C-alpha cells in the first residue's frame, strides 16, 4: 500500500523535494543492512533524509499522526537487520546530520550529530590531540547507530563498549518532542538515567540526533604481539593467565588459522604465524615505547608457560597495520559464503569450551563453522557457512545449508546460554535474533522491555518488530 498523497505532500514540505526518495532504485540500498543474506530485506515505502534536528522531529510527529512506521538509519553497517524497515513504513536516514559541533579539549569531549562517521570522528579527535578508544569495526558506521546498537569491538576488553563513553544524547521521541539527556558532565544522579535506556535500544524508543562522547588523552605508542599455539585451548588459557598477572591489554583477539588463508588471499598480505591451530593477537598501548616493550616482554614470559610455538612482536606501524587489517577483514573474506554470523558472548573462562562445542557441531553437521573473536571479553564470532571451505578457498554451496542453519543457530545459542552467556555481545537483536531473546534473558525481562516500549511508543511506530515482535 503506497503512502497517501497527503503524507507525501506534508513530508516534502518539511524536508524539501530533494529530501524524499520514492523510486525503487533510490529505496533499494535502504532495504537491508550488512547481514550476510537477503532474507530480511524489505523495501521502504519512502526514504526521507532530513537535514536538521527540527526536520527529524517534524517527520516523526507526522508519522505518529498518520500511523506510518518509521525506521531510523545511519550507515546501515549493522549485522542484525536492525535498520530494515517494515513493508508499510519509511526509512528516516540521518546521513545529512553530519556536523561535528565541537571538540572540547578542556572537558575532553566531542559533540557531534548522529550522521558523523566513525572515520570523521577519529580524524577530528586525532587532530585535537585526544583519543577515542572504541573501534567497533567499519569506520563508515555513524555515531547515532553506534550508540543505538551499543557497539563494541576489540578494544572493549580495556575500555568497554560505546556506552561507557556516552555523556549526553539528544533524542526525538515518538510524539516529535526533542529531549536532551545527560550532558557534558562526568557524573549524574539526577533522576532516572534515561540516557542509558536509549543506548542499545536500536531505534525502538526514539531517534538519536546528537551525541556527546568522552575522550581521553592520546596514547603515545603501541605494540602488537602475535602468539601462535598448537591448540585453541592453549591460546585461551594463556589469556586467563595474562589477566591473572594484572595485565589488561588494549585488545586481545583469538584467530583460528583455518580462517586466515581466505583473508590473506583477499588482501594479498600474510599473517606472521604459520604453525599451529590458532593465534592470539594482543595489542598494547601507552605513553612510552620502553614501557610497552617491557610489557610485551612480560607477556612473552607469561605465554611461555602455555608452550607457544612462537612469540612475534611487531613494533613498526606498518607491520601492526597489516596484522590488524587481516584480522579486521575476516568477515569480508568469508562473507560471500556466509549464511549467518553469530556474536554470542560468554564468560571469558568459557570461550575454549564454547569453541570446542562449535567444532563438535561442525563435525556433526558437516558444515564449516569458522570461529574467531574477542578473547578478552568473551565475544565469539562464528560463521555458519553456506559454502564449503577447501584448501583456503570457498568451495561449492552446500545443498542443505538452509536446513542445517536453523539447527546451528539453536545449538550455538543454547550452548552460550548454558555457559552463562548472551546471544549478542555487540551486534544487537534486530529482526535476526528476536525470537531467541526470551529464552536467553527470561520472560520477565522481556515483559518489562515491552512495557517500556509501550509507555514511550504507544502507537508502535518506532522501528517496529525489532528486539521483539510488537
Protein topology:
Blueprint: H1 5-15, E1 20-21, H2 24-27, E2 47-48, H3 53-66, E3 70-73, E4 90-93, E5 100-104, E6 109-113, H4 118-127, E7 130-131, H5 143-148, H6 156-159, E8 166-172, E9 178-182, H7 194-198, E10 207-214, E11 216-217, E12 221-229, H8 232-244, E13 251-256, H9 260-267, E14 278-286, H10 289-304, E15 312-314, H11 317-328, H12 330-334, E16 338-342, H13 351-365, E17 371-374, E18 379-385, E19 387-390, E20 393-397, H14 401-418, H15 434-441, H16 443-456
Parallel strand pairs: 2-4, 3-4
Antiparallel strand pairs: 1-2, 5-6, 6-10, 7-11, 8-9, 8-10, 12-14, 12-15, 13-14, 13-17, 16-18, 17-18, 19-20
Helix pairs in contact: 1-3, 8-13, 13-14, 15-16
CATH architecture of the largest domain: 2-Layer Sandwich
Radius of gyration: 23 Å
Give the overall form: globular
Distance between the termini: 20 Å
Amino acid at each position: 500500500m503506497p503512502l497517501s498523497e497527503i503524507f507525501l505532500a506534508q513530508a516534502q514540505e518539511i524536508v524539501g523535494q530533494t529530501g524524499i526518495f520514492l523510486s525503487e532504485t533510490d529505496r533499494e540500498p535502504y532495504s537491508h543492512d550488512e547481514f550476510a543474506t537477503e532474507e530480511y530485506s524489505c523495501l521502504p515505502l519512502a526514504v526521507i533524509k532530513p537535514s536538521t534536528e527540527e526536520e527529524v522531529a517534524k517527520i516523526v510527529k507526522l508519522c505518529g499522526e498518520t500511523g506510518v512506521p518509521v525506521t531510523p538509519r545511519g550507515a546501515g553497517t549493522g549485522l542484525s537487520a536492525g535498520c530494515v524497515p517494515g513493508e508499510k513504513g519509511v526509512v528516516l536516514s540521518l546521513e545529512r546530520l553530519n556536523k561535528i559541533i565541537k571538540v572540547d579539549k578542556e572537558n575532553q569531549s566531542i559533540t557531534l550529530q548522529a550522521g558523523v562517521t566513525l572515520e570523521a570522528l577519529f580524524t577530528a579527535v586525532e587532530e585535537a590531540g585526544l583519543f577515542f578508544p572504541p573501534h567497533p569495526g567499519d569506520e563508515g558506521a555513524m555515531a547515532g547507530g553506534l550508540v543505538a546498537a551499543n557497539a563494541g569491538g576489540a578494544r572493549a576488553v580495556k575500555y568497554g563498549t560505546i556506552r561507557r563513553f556516552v555523556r549526553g544524547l539528544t533524542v526525538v521521541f515518538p510524539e516529535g518532542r526533542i529531549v536532551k539527556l545527560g550532558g557534558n558532565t562526568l557524573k549524574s544522579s539526577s533522576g532516572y538515567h534515561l540516557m542509558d535506556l536509549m543506548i542499545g535500544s536500536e531505534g525502538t524508543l526514539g531517534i538519536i540526533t546528537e551525541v556527546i562522547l568522552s575522550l581521553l588523552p592520546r596514547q603515545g605508542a603501541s605494540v602488537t604481539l602475535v602468539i601462535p599455539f598448537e591448540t585453541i585451548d592453549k591460546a585461551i588459557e594463556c589469556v586467563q593467565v595474562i589477566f591473572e598477572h594484572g595485565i589488561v591489554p588494549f585488545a586481545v583477539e583469538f584467530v583460528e588459522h583455518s580462517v586466515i588463508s581466505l583473508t590473506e588471499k583477499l588482501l594479498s598480505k600474510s599473517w606472521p604465524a604459520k604453525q599451529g591451530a590458532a593465534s592470539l593477537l594482543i595489542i598494547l598501548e601507552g605513553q612510552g615505547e620502553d614501557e610497552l616493550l617491557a610489557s610485551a616482554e612480560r607477556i612473552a614470559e607469561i605465554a611461555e608457560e602455555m608452550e607457544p610455538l612462537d612469540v612475534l612482536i611487531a613494533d613498526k606501524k606498518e607491520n601492526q597495520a597489516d596484522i590488524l587489517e587481516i584480522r579486521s577483514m575476516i568477515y569480508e573474506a568469508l562473507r560471500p559464503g556466509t549464511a549467518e554470523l553469530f556474536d554470542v558472548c560468554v564468560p571469558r573462562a568459557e570461550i575454549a569450551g564454547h569453541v570446542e562445542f562449535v567444532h563438535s557441531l561442525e563435525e556433526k553437521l558437516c558444515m564449516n563453522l569458522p570461529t574467531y573473536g574477542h578473547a578478552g571479553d568473551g565475544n565469539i564470532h562464528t560463521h555458519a557457512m553456506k559454502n564449503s571451505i577447501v584448501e583456503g578457498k570457498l568451495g561449492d554451496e552446500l545443498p542443505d545449508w538452509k536446513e542445517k542453519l536453523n539447527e546451528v543457530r539453536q545449538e550455538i545459542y543454547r550452548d552460550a546460554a548454558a555457559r552463562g552467556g548472551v546471544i549478542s555481545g555487540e551486534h544487537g537483536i534486530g529482526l535476526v535474533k528476536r525470537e531467541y531473546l526470551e529464552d536467553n534473558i527470561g520472560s520477565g525481562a522481556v515483559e518489562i522491555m515491552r512495557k517500556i516500549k509501550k509507555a514511550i511508543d504507544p502507537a508502535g511506530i518506532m522501528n517496529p518488530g525489532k528486539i521483539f515482535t510488537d
